[in-house]
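haha ok so turns out i had the wrong file open the whole time. this is the CORRECT one, sorry everyone. sequence first:
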Amino acid sequence: MTRARGAALVVFAKEPVPGQVKTRLSPPLTPEQAAALYAEMLADVLDTSARWARAHSLSPFLSLHPGEAAGRVPHPETFRIEPQVGVGLAERMENAAAARFAEGYGPVLLRGSDSPALGEATLEAALHALTRHDVVLCPDRDGGYNLVGLSRPTPGLFDHPMSTGSVLADTIANARRAGRTHQVLEPGFDIDTIEDLERLKKAREQDAAGECPRTLAWLDAHAAWELHRPPSGA
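then structure:
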């Protein structure tokens, strides 16, 4: 199929409901605090993604769960909102990518909403890699990834268990089985546990957290940095 619509950037997100998002942050955060933090993370991710879309001529989509939450989740007006379709995350990602390709978009990039510090350099690296490879992945620190790009449809790419320490390896294995080339980018990190705040703190100290001002402001306001203190000598 000839691509006529250019590249699509799809943000995967959930409605920030206490007890249903960022559950590994609670404790020490309360479920309400964890949901509030996720809401700020999502706002940062959507603002950043909207800016990326303008700068790189991408069409932005928000793939939301549950779909009926569209009117309850603030988002830049440039986003087209669609419900996530499928039983689990793997099927939802597969369906979102397939839908964009069927509409004539390509390449298609999917990014999560757990990595608010992900920088524009990573997006640019992914777009460049997709001119030479079929699948591009940006790993996180726990065996998964926070950004995946596809230059052409690859059915079955996500046909493996999710939320495991082998998600990246399993996706690469599926790409190889499908006869697709791949490239792995420099890793980023998600905010899933209270220990992950140390990575964000270091990124801030290195001026590498400019993409997430709302996240940082919430953490400052709630003194959340003090909730994780590395062992002495770490």
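The domain at 8-223 is CATH 3.90.550.10 (Spore Coat Polysaccharide Biosynthesis Protein SpsA; Chain A).
again sry for the mixup
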